[in-house]
Structure formats: C-alpha cells, structure tokens
Design a protein that fits this description.
One of its GO terms (molecular function) is protein phosphatase regulator activity. With 912 residues, the protein is an all-alpha fold. The chain has a domain of 161 residues: Leucine-rich Repeat Variant (Alpha Horseshoe). It is built from 46 helices and four strands. It has a two-stranded antiparallel ribbon. A two-stranded antiparallel ribbon has the order 2-3. Strand 2 and strand 3 form a beta hairpin.
Length: 912
C-alpha cells in the first residue's frame, strides 16, 4: 500500500506540472514546466523552492534534471541567479543518492553555460559548484562518486576549474583519500582519479603536490589494485615531470612494479614501457630499461609476455635517432617529409671509405654501399665486367663455389699438391732415368733450412684472416658467407700489401746504408744496374701516391681487427643469428623481436604476435637504419608470406613508409618483389597497396616504375564486384599517379582506365573519375601535347556529350566547368573545342543536365576575363544561353543560372 500511495502522490504532483502520465520519461517534454503558474499562486522561484525540496523524490529528480534550463530562465537577473545557485548548493545535500547523481550529471553542462554567458562565472563556480564536486568524491554512494569523478575530469578537460581551486580544493581531498589508513574503496578510486588528473595539471603542481604520494602508492603493499593503477599510468607521470625527476625518483619505483608478485601489475608496466623509455636518457634506456624489458619478455605469465611482445617494437623505436637512421623525423616518430629517395641517401657511411685507388679495384658492394662485413649479401654484390672467377684452394681441395674479384686481383691456383703419380706420356717414350731421389731430398732439406733462417714471422692479422677463410670453404653456398669472403679477401690483400711495403722499406734502408758506407760496388753489370734501379724506384715515387697507399692500409684496420675476432670462433660467427648483429639497440631486444615470427611464439604467447611484429616493423627499421636492413630482411620476407592475411595487410599498408626508410636501391632489390606479390593478393591486402600506390611508385626509378603501367588495369578486377570503394581508391590514386608518367604513357594506359571508371555503376566512383579525366587533360596541355589533348577531347565529346544516358551528358558539363576552373587550357582552345558542345546541352531534356550547364556557365565561364574582354560571339552566345536558363521551367536550373558566384552556397552534388 505504501508503494501505491507513493505513485498516487507523484501523479497528483505531476498533474500540476502538466506532465500527466509521462512518469520518469520526461526527456521529450519541457522539464521546467513546474515553473509555470499554477494553483499555488507562488512565484517561479517559490515553485522552484517548493519542488526542489519536495517530499516526493521524483519531484526532486525532475528539478535536478532541469537545473540548466532553470538557470537560463533566471540568468538575466543577478539576484535571481544567486538564489538559484543557493538552491543548487542546498540540493547537493539531498539524502537520496539518485537526486545527488542526477545533479552531478548536470553540473558539467551548467558549468559550461556559466562559463560562456556569465562574466562573474569564476567566482560563482568556485563558490557553489566546485565544493559540490569535491564533496561528492567522498560520497558514501558508489554511483554518486563515479559520477562526480567523471564530472571532475570533464571540467578539467574543458579548463573550467582554475589552478588555484585544483591545488587548494581538489588535490587535498585526493591526498587525504590516498593515505595508508584510508578506506580501500576510496583509496583505489582516488588513485585512479589522481592518475587521470595528472595529465591535465602543470608540471610544478604535479611535482609539488602529487609526485611523492604517487611514489608511495607504487609501493603499497596491501592493495595490488593501487599498484596496478599506478603502473598503468606510470608513463603519464614520467611525461609530466620530465627526465630528471623520472630518473631520480620514478625509475626505481618502476623496477619494483616490473617485479611485482601480481602479474596484472607487471602486464601494466609492459604496456606503458615505451612512454617511460621516452622520458629516460639514452644511457638509462640501454643499460637499465633494456634488461628490465627482457625480464618482462621472459615473464612466467603468458599475459605479461603477450603485452611485452606487443610493446617490443614500440620500445625499440625509442632508440631511434636521426644520426643512426639517416632520416629526420619528428618527436612522435613520423618522418619529417616523404620525398623521392635519391641513390645518395641509400649509401651507408658508417664504415670508413677506402681510398679512391682501392675503390676502383673493388666490387661495387665493397666500395661504398656497405656498412660492415655482416651487411654484405649475395643479392647486393654484382660482378663488374672485368671480373674473373677465382677458385680458392685449401689443402689440395678445390671448392666448387666461386668468389668474384676484379681481374687485377685474381689469385693464382695453387696446384703444388697434384699427385706425382698422375698419368703422363712422358714416362713411356724413353728409358727410365737414374733414381736421384735421395740427392733431391737432401737438397730440399738444405733449402728449407736456409729459408727457415731468413723467414720472417707471419703477420698475425694475415694469419687470422687466412684461418677464417679456410674455415669457410664448406659454407660457400651461403650467400652471407660468400659476401663475407669477399670482404676478408680484400682485407687479406691489404695486409699482404702492407707486408710488401715493409719489406721494400727494409731493402731501401739496407741499400742506403751501403751507399753511405761506400761499400757499394760501382762497377755493376747491366743486370745488376737494372736491379738497383728497381730497388731505388720506391724512393723516387710520387709522395702523394705513397701517402694514399698508406692511408688505404690504415683504413683496413677495422676489417683486420674484425677478422682477428672471427678467427677465435669462426663456426659460431656465421650462424644465422650472428649475421644480424648491429650496435644501434641492445642485441637481445633485436633477437627477441626477430623471434616474433617463430610459430612457437604464436602457441606460447599470442596467436596474433606476427601481426604486432608487422605493425611495428617500419619503426624498428627506422631505428636500425638502412645500413642494418639485413637484420630485418628475412623477418620481413617471412611476414610477407604469412598465412594470415591480416599480417600481410599490415605490411601492405606500410610498405611505402618502409621504402622511404630504405631508399631506392634497397627498395628495388628487396621491397619490389614483395610489393608485386601484394598486388596479386586478396582484396584486403591489395587495398593497403592501393591506398599508397602513388607514394610507393614515386620512390622507384623511372624504368622500374614504368613496368607497373601494365598492372594498373588489374586493379579494376576485385574479388567482390560490389566493392566499389576499391575502384574509388584507384581513381584517387591515378589522379596523383598521372604526374609520374609521360604524356604518351598516360594516353596509352591511364586514359582507358579513366574512361572505364567514368562508366561505373556507382555514382561516387564516376564523379571522382571525372576529376581524373580533367587531370589527364591537364597533363596533355602542360606537356605541350596538344594533339593528344585534342584527340582526348573528341573522345570525351563522343562518349559523354552525345551519350544516350543523362549521367554521361551531365558528366560532360562537370568536366567543362572543371577545365575552366583549373585554367590549364587556353581559353581560345576551350571556346573552339568544348564550349559549343557545352552550350548545346543547355536544351537537354533532363533538368539535372541543365543544372550543371547553368552552374558551369554562370559560375565559371562568364567570370573568365577572356570572355568579358572579348565581348565577341562567344560572349554573346554564353549570355543568351544563361538568360534562357534563368527562365527555365525547373526551379534549380533557374537558381544556378541567376546565383552570383560569391553566393554559391549550394552543393551541386545534393541535386544529383
């Protein structure tokens, strides 16, 4: 019976408001109806007071919901406005939670209204509304607290609450709720609101009021929910306080959170790792954060490992620098500009270049386009025309694999180990000779003794290189090993050259000593004289050339040192993983990133781990730089052939960015084959290539780019014929691509595609294709190919102006207007070739055609100075046609025929 009495009372009150039987659904009617005159003879403010504190809860809810309209009613009178604000303040103390929640939901709207319309808003808001928001943060009802937290964030985002109120009223409450002795529920909510609040405050406020408390909350031993909230928002605090405070105070706390016993806390740390890393110095990032991240990747919890691998690429990107990547980029990682890459940008300069005299004797891969030994591959080395095939022999075993070296440096084949029992006809045509083997053996021993005494100790660098070369003979089928042999062979020759120079210098010194002592016999034979001249020759050599030889030798020190290191363990060096060594990021991070394509990772970590790898690959490539592309090449090829189309789609959408990073040479060698594969893939993958087709093609050389002219037609065919957005995207890209090809290529290939798209069943595709037609015309006339332009115009007249379908005739009017607006065609040619056909369409039976004719003539053609100044037959014909259209039977035609150009506010497409 009590419930029935409640609804009866509510019904009686609602009758007074005029709400009748609407019940609680009052959004569609005027909520402030209770202010209207009724039977109580009260003033509007009196009725507000009566119903705001009515015993009926529903009445109080209605008043709270309509407070914004109430303020609008009384905003003109200062006293009435303050009375309403006092009423709001008193209503905030209502005992019913639903009333308080309703009031708090309306508070952001009220605040914005006051902010826009009341000059004294800051005082009123600070005095009446801010205390309500702050008090509700500690409300016993959960719904009211949540509503107040949301309202507080909205007010801060809008910049309504001033800094003084935040520091003096909001922050003290949050600090009080986050003390060790505060209630658990209040504490968790206060930490969450404090962490969200920090990004809206100034750095000084955060450091002065919240930073110390945040550090204490990160170590809260009682509530893991508090630590999880802190971990989730750790990056925001680091971003606000900056590098110094991050490294002095926050990094230590971050280490604690990453080692937390609760996996949810560690997972939250992995998710914000990139943001934290961005706020640390390069040294801290490499020496402290990298090992910490490796621990998260190896975490016992699968969910932590999953989050860590998803953040791995982003964390690696924080190591990026313009010096290492060779490309300038903004703070957020976006490239500053995406321009056509020249071949000069694709050269890697980290390795000291050898002298010009040595460059002319080396293969292209060794004279300027490689960073170190590991960066060489068989794909990047091409033998010049003057190269011969040389066989490296080791202990009598001749390898079937070959290494290409220049002709001047071809090595001689050592055949000293050929068996003496080999067949020879010399053994059978005369009597056997006496056996003198013992005498020969004795002579050989004596010769070896003499040689042993005069032999100098072998250079350790040369020995190391030879040892590595010997160990590689059974691996010559590996392209990376083959490229490495080339580098080591060059280093070996430089080392031998140094030894020869030293021997010549010693002979010079000995000769000079003999000359000084007068012990040189001046009566020498002609043969001896020639020998002396050859000995003295290095003395009179050109000094610059000699200095160049010495400089070249010194530049090879790096290769020789690397060879000495390789000699220690050559078997391990050329393992597949060892060839991916670089020094830009910690090697462990790169190894873990490369392992994301391992099928085992999909089973133990995340089934979509390959997609995350593909998503972050351009950022990792930018970080490593093009000189370390060999580290990622295999991974990229693996991702490009992944069975999941989502992985391939991700790569397709970013291949143009990767092409900018790698440069034109690596793009042509490594990305073009993958790009060609994407062109034949599913539509979901092809659309990624299509959306950035222009961006990719402009990076290629002209001859390579021209090959794709034959494939553009393939984009017209899709898996689903209803996928009209695919054709729309093709038309948009072709508008840009026109500039990349000659006018003859455009006429032979792109023209036909454009005309086909102009006949598409979907209107959006047709209209964008008309713009493509205009762009092709522009290409012809800007390239001085007037004859091709005239042929194309005649084709347009036949296909569109004389089309039996009205959409074709309408398209012709649109094209004519666009040609005049773009102003690339001489007006005399326009008047001669296009204008007569356009004027002929003014009598078209279809109103939509006449609309575009009227718009083209009145808005564009008549505004051209050419027609105004000429005042000839063309002007008269246009003027007469416009006057005729101004009296057209169709209202829209009359409108566009009379509308002034500056007042053209109507969209033509809305009429079609």
């Amino acid at each position: 019976m009590a419930g029935l009495s409640y609804f009866e009372d509510a019904h009686d009150d609602l009758d007074d408001f005029g709400f009748d039987d609407y019940g609680g659904e009052c959004d569609g009617i005027r909520i402030t109806a209770f202010l209207d005159a009724g039977q109580d003879n009260l003033t509007p403010l009196g009725r507000l007071e009566k119903y705001a504190f009515s015993e009926n809860v529903f009445n109080r809810q209605i008043v709270a919901r309509g407070l914004l309209d109430v303020l609008r009613e009384f905003s003109d009178n200062e006293n009435d406005f303050l009375t309403v604000m006092e009423t709001v303040s008193r209503m905030s103390e209502d005992c019913e939670p639903t009333v308080r929640a309703e009031l708090m939901e309306q508070l952001p709207n009220i605040a914005m209204f006051l902010h826009e319309s009341r000059p004294n808003f800051p005082v009123a808001f600070s005095r009446y509304l801010v205390p309500i928001v702050v008090r509700y943060l500690t409300d016993p009802n959960n719904q009211v607290r949540k509503t107040s937290q949301a309202a507080l964030l909205v007010l801060l985002e809008q910049g309504v609450i001033n800094k003084r109120d935040v520091e003096s009223k909001v922050c003290p409450v949050l600090l009080e709720l986050t003390t060790p002795n505060s209630d658990d529920d209040y504490k968790i909510e206060a930490v969450a609101i404090m962490c969200k609040l920090v990004s809206m405050l100034t750095r000084d406020t955060v450091e002065y009021l919240l930073l110390r408390r945040f550090c204490d909350l990160c170590s809260d031993s009682r509530l893991f929910q508090v630590r999880k909230v802190c971990a989730s928002n750790f990056g925001d605090f680091c971003t606000i306080v900056g590098q110094d405070a991050t490294e002095k105070l926050l990094i230590a706390k971050f280490f604690e959170l990453c080692s937390d016993t609760v996996w949810g806390v560690r997972k939250a740390c992995a998710e914000c790792f990139m943001t934290v890393s961005n706020c640390a110095s390069a040294e801290v990032r490499r020496t402290k954060l990298s090992p910490l991240f490796i621990n998260l990747i190896s975490d016992p919890s699968r969910w932590v490992r999953q989050a860590a691998f998803q953040s791995l690429g982003r964390f690696i990107s924080t190591f990026a620098s313009s010096a290492a990547s060779g490309l300038p980029f903004k703070e957020q990682g976006a490239l500053c500009e995406i321009a056509k890459c020249s071949s000069d940008l694709s050269r890697c300069n980290n390795l000291r270049e050898l002298s010009d005299t040595r460059d002319s004797q080396k293969p292209p891969c060794m004279s300027g386009n490689c960073t170190d030994a590991a960066s060489l591959s068989a794909d990047s080395c091409h033998a010049p025309k003057d190269c011969v095939t040389t066989v490296l022999c080791n202990q009598g075993a001749v390898s079937a694999n070959t290494v290409e070296l220049p002709l001047k440096e071809a090595q001689k084949i050592d055949c000293s180990d050929i068996s003496e029992d080999s067949y020879s006809t010399f053994n059978y045509w005369r009597p056997l000779l006496p056996d003198i083997s013992l005498e020969l053996e004795q002579m050989q021993r004596e010769k070896e003794d003499v040689d042993e005494q005069s032999r100098k100790p072998e250079d350790p660098a040369t020995s190391a290189i030879q040892k590595v070369l010997e160990s590689l003979q059974h691996r010559m089928d590996d392209p990376d090993v083959l490229a490495q042999v080339q580098v080591l062979s060059a280093a070996l020759k430089v080392s031998k050259l140094e030894s020869e120079i030293e021997e010549e210098e010693e002979e010079e010194n000995e000769l000079l000593q003999k000359v000084d002592k007068g012990s040189l016999d001046m009566s020498v034979s002609p043969l001896q004289e020639g020998k002396e001249e050859s000995i003295m020759e290095p003395i009179v050599q050109d000094e610059d050339h000699h200095a160049s030889e010495q400089t070249s030798s010194s530049d090879s020190d790096l290769l020789i040192e690397n060879a000495q290191e390789m000699a220690k363990d050559p078997d391990l060096l050329f393992d597949e993983e060892k060839t991916k060594v670089q020094d830009v990021i910690p090697q462990q991070l790169l190894d873990q990133y490369l392992s994301m394509t391992d099928p085992a990772r999909a089973q133990t970590v995340d089934t979509e781990i390959a997609k995350h790898c593909a998503f972050s690959l351009p950022g990792v490539a930018l970080t490593l730089g093009r000189q370390n592309w060999h580290c990622l090449k295999g991974t990229y090829e693996t991702l490009a052939t992944d069975v999941q189309w989502k992985v391939r789609r991700t790569l397709a959408f970013s291949i143009h960015e990767l092409a900018v990073i790698l440069g034109d040479q690596l793009t042509a060698a490594d990305l073009v084959p993958i790009f060609n594969g994407f062109l034949k893939d599913l539509d979901e993958v092809r659309i990624g290539v299509l959306k950035h087709l222009y961006d990719f093609l402009k990076l290629l050389h002209a001859d390579k780019r021209r090959e794709y002219l034959f494939q553009l037609q393939e984009f017209m065919v899709t898996d689903n014929s209803r996928n009209w957005r695919f054709r729309y995207e093709l038309a948009e890209q072709l508008i840009l691509i026109v500039e990349l090809y000659s006018h003859n290529d455009v006429y032979d290939y792109l023209r036909q595609i454009a005309l086909t798209l102009c006949s598409d069943k979907v209107a959006q595709v047709r209209w964008i294709s008309y713009k493509l037609v205009v762009e092709i015309l522009r290409k012809f006339y800007l390239s001085a190919a007037d004859e091709l332009g005239l042929n194309f115009i005649n084709e347009l007249i036949v296909r569109f102006c004389h089309s039996p379908k009205w959409v074709g005739r309408q398209a012709f009017a649109f094209i004519c207007q666009a040609v005049v607006e773009e102003d690339f065609m001489p007006m005399d040619q326009f008047s001669q070739n296009l204008l007569p056909s356009l004027l002929g369409l003014s009598a078209d039976p279809v109103a939509n055609v006449r609309v575009l004719v009227a718009k083209a003539l009145r808005q564009t053609v008549l505004e051209k100075a050419y027609f105004k100044e000429a005042n000839g037959p063309h002007y008269e014909a246009i003027e007469e046609t416009v006057i005729t259209l101004q009296s057209d039977r169709d209202r829209d035609v009359r409108y566009f025929a009379t509308l002034e150009p500056s007042k053209n506010a109507m969209d033509t497409f809305a009429l079609i």
